[in-house]
Design goal:
By secondary structure, this protein is an alpha/beta fold. It has 12 helices and 14 strands. The chain has a 6-stranded mixed beta sheet with strand order 6-7-8-3-9-10, sandwiched between helices. A 4-stranded antiparallel beta sheet has the order 2-1-4-5, covered by helices on one side. A 4-stranded antiparallel beta sheet has the order 12-13-11-14. Helix 3 runs parallel beside helix 5, helix 4 crosses helix 5 and helix 5 packs parallel to helix 6. The N terminus is likely disordered.
């Protein structure tokens, strides 16, 4: 099935030069006025510079109150920045009048956390709603809605009401509705946080296929690194209204720089230590004990038999304490925690051996 995505020009503002980014935040700040006597103004965003490449999937992750919801609401004009510019497809959304904003909201689809379906309308009628508002005729609405319901796997549920649908099915209706106006940008606001893990996986697969097959640019916000890992190509970490880390998903997952990013990754495969090992680790050397070393396998030597080479070359007896081998963004990534004799010369030789093969290492403690 092929769905037509036909971009239309935004109105109400002077187009900016065309660029590779579908969405750009340029020095964007947002402050909400004080509400109530004695209350202070709230600065939700501060100096955001961020670009979402056209046709890409960028995930923004942050804790509650970090500013991620405010960020996404600036894209379709539900909020306006206090300063800076928000640019979508070369047009400055932050300067649009109401007529221009209506056009933006037709071209920027949005998927909500709690589905936001009308209980009195069937799945078909919920998807058709934005087209009815836009004034399309019944035949044209049918030509758009039927393929969309098929796309999201709900062709047989077109006559069902929301109360008759599961959470995942409701979200699929929400996604089809967001696509009804043929947007070029899709916003996902915690779209899977109300779903169970299996349903979450199916919804993320659907978003990935929409990005791949329809070429839509997707900006999604979440508080779960597993969501970023499953569907995004780039990730931006937001904390206290600022972007504290931004980059390729594989690079950020395997070499997190900021403490907030490391905190989010602490439960991810390869970053979390099993409880039994956490209990055994000591910050200082243990008499007669060993040093625990974490080795990150990435890059050109990710799949090489490094440990056997290390053991053979240095004559070491290595003990594997924990480990995992996985794939992130289609690239192999592994983590092993090993112990080796707590001797400075031995440790230095092992670190030099691993560094020569471009493997990241970290001494994480000592064990008996």
């Amino acid at each position: 099935m092929t769905l037509s995505i036909r971009p239309t020009a935004l109105v109400g503002a002077t187009p900016l030069p065309s660029e590779a980014a579908a969405i750009r935040f340029e020095a964007v700040s947002k402050t909400f006025a004080a509400r109530g006597r004695g209350a202070a103004a709230v600065r939700a965003l501060s100096g955001i510079d961020l670009a979402v490449p056209s046709g890409s999937v960028l995930g923004v992750i942050g804790r509650s109150g970090a500013g991620k919801s405010t960020l996404i609401r600036l894209v379709n004009g539900l909020d306006r920045p206090t300063s800076g510019r928000v640019v979508v497809d070369g047009t400055e959304v932050s300067s649009l009048d109401e007529r221009g904003l209506r056009d933006v909201r037709r071209r920027v689809g949005m998927v909500f956390q709690h589905f936001n379906l009308l209980s009195s309308r069937t799945a078909y009628d919920n998807v058709a709603l934005p087209l009815e508002i836009a004034g399309l005729g019944r035949d044209e609405i049918r030509r758009r809605v039927d393929p969309l319901l098929d796309l999201v796997g709900l062709a047989d549920k077109r006559g069902r009401y929301p109360v008759e649908l599961s959470g995942g099915q409701k979200q699929r209706v929400g996604i089809a509705r967001a696509l009804a106006t043929r947007p070029t940008v899709l916003l996902s606001d915690e779209a899977t946080s109300a779903l169970d893990p299996e349903t979450t996986r199916s919804i993320l697969d659907l978003l990935a296929s929409i990005n791949r097959d329809l070429g839509l640019t997707i900006l999604l916000i979440t508080h779960e690194m597993s969501v970023i890992r499953a569907v995004a190509r780039e990730v931006a970490v937001i904390e206290d209204g600022r972007i504290v880390e931004h980059g390729d998903v594989f690079d950020v997952f395997t070499r997190p720089r900021h403490p907030t990013t490391r905190s989010f990754l602490s439960t991810e495969t390869g970053h979390a230590l099993p409880p039994y090992l956490r209990e055994r680790l000591r910050p200082e050397p243990v008499p007669g004990g060993a040093v625990a070393l974490r080795i990150l396998f990435r890059g050109p030597h990710a799949t090489d038999p490094i440990l056997s080479e290390l053991s053979r070359e240095l004559g070491l007896d290595l003990n594997i304490l924990s480990g995992s081998v996985d794939e992130i963004a289609g690239r192999p990534f592994g983590t092993l925690v090993v112990s080796l004799p707590n001797e400075p010369a031995t440790l230095d030789a092992a670190l030099a051996f691993l560094a020569a093969r471009a493997l990241d290492t970290e001494v994480i403690g000592h064990v008996a």
